[in-house]
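Question:
Now give any protein.
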Amino acid sequence: MKQGELAIVSGDTKVFTILGSCVAVVLWDEQSKIGGANHFLLPTWNHRGAPDVRYGDVAVTELHDKTILSGAVKRRLVAKVYGGASMLKLDNASFNIGQRNIEIALQKLKELNIPVIEEITGGNLGRKILFDPMTGDVKLDYIKNINF
């Protein structure tokens, strides 16, 4: 899955993505084995043009809605959150896009009343994740930071 995308999966289909300051939210229903993931770049949609899953506030809501439409049951959904690294040396506290992405993901999940059972976020290393909807497992590997 590329930046600004969302995927709903079940069965043997897995989701793979690479994250830096972007954040991925994974939702999963253990009983139905249906889950999904998003990969968003920026925290909030600026209300110009159509809503887009490149923005966290839109991406988390879309992921929630599409996972349920695909057969997952809301009360059984759990969330895992990854990414949000500070990838640039000049990424100061007031501009830290990674931290702002993490915050919007957690805020939207709280609003949707979905428990976060795993959160591996922040720091300054990128991450590769692989989500398996059959088990709910997310395999994570760190990527060494490339300094700009």
The longest strand covers residues 23-29.
